[in-house]
Amino acid sequence: MSLAIVHSRAQVGVDAPPVTVEAHLANGLPSMALVGLPETAVKESKDRVRSALLNAGFDFPARRITLNLAPADLPKDGGRFDLAIAMGILAASGQVPESALADLECLGELALSGALRPVQGVLPAALAARAAGRRLVVPRANAEEASLASGLEILAVDHLLELVAHCAGQTPLAPFASQGLLRQIAPYPDLAEVQGQAAAKRALLIAASGSHNLLFSGPPGTGKTLLASRLPGLLPALTESEALEVAAIHSVASHEPLRCWPQRPFRHPHHSASGPALVGGGSRPQPGEITLAHQGVLFLDELPEFDRKVLEVLREPLESGHIVIARARDKIRFPARFQLVAAMNPCPCGYLGDPSGRCRCSPEQIQRYRGKLSGPLLDRIDLHLTVAREATALQGTAGDGSNSATLAAVVAAARQRQIERQGCANAFLDLPGLRQHCRLDSEDACWLETACERLGLSLRAAHRVMKVARTLADLEGEPNIGRAHLAEALQYRPAAGA
């Protein structure tokens, strides 16, 4: 038969839309045409496929070959279509039975020898192939990653000849059996290693329980970074669907195999990061730090040292939980439901308010330094805490007995109450959910309104106070928000202009 069809998958953001590779052999001068909106790497596959077929001992048809990657309006890039193109040519020329390809989806880049090289974005393709009810053929280096999509039959291939022998019925391939190499969970740093800082540990407990954003402010050496790195160890374990979301993002973003799955990510970009590095971008849009921190923690140390324009791009994702990268040809939507933890010094030298009195910053310098952070961005941070210097105790730690395992159990119980009540963490409540689950009696509502007016808080800040108060009530197992919960929540909000 002179026409063959092979199924494959493209990569668009974190999605894997289906692509049908159609190979047609016609009479005429020998040539090969590739159509279907291919990018440069896909156009070069013609030469890779020709050499791979010849070096593997197959006959390359001396006919007019037309290869169509459908749908025609979907851009295709990368070497992921090499294997599908090669199998299409072999099936169209009668060297492989086409019926054996009907329930297969093929991904893989071909070396000139016919060996298969790994490609990016295999896990989203595996999830899509499972939903379509087909088997997936991938390079062996990608098989462990693809096996995260449970219930999918995977054929791991090292060379083109192996797949051809399987399709011809000569040497059938056994379904790939996962070795569990990606399911090795590494322990998070323990909060018990942090000396003192009881107030900061309390703030971490509240932030973890309700998925609230958190800002630490204090002199250098007070443990702000140390505290922030302990937050992932307090968060509840990822569900199966959340873990697959995280793994799919990292599959798209890196050639490196996934490690320590399933764990919440902790991203710590340097303050010199650009806007596209933080939110994603490029001519071929790739996920940025906020997407790589999806379902995890994004830690921004030395917050005022970031460019103000870079920080402002965080405002919409903090509210919506996703980022849309707009290009002339298309719009790519990346998930970005992350928990922001930031740290900063109180002044340029860092020692404002220190008992040593070493700060020499002028009021103008302090105002200019703090002015790098906009009010709308600070409004979106639920918990603001000043971290004071603790007494130096080099001989061991004078801890309060709290450790990550103990607090994680408290966080899990509080988060479970929220899931059963409203289906999400308190920080993600929308306005209808806020009105339904954060109700106040008339006296407490009037008290909170008066307090917000005196502090000069915006309506958004007032809503976030109510969400934090709801989390405090959940930590105590209380069904209703009380005055004490509101009072403690207000302590984490700075007055306007402070």
From TrEMBL:
Name all AAA+ ATPase domain ranges. Answer: 210-372
Pfam families from the UniProt entry: ChlI, Mg_chelatase, Mg_chelatase_C
Recorded GO terms, molecular function?
A: ATP binding; DNA binding; peptidase activity
Key word Hydrolase present: yes
Q: Which GO terms describe its biological process?
A: proteolysis
Q: Which UniProt keywords apply?
A: ATP-binding, Hydrolase, Nucleotide-binding, Protease
Family note: Belongs to the Mg-chelatase subunits D/I family. ComM subfamily.
- Which NCBIfam families does the UniProt record give? PRK09862.1, YifB family Mg chelatase-like AAA ATPase
Name of the protein in question: ATP-dependent protease
Please name the source species: Pseudomonas mangrovi
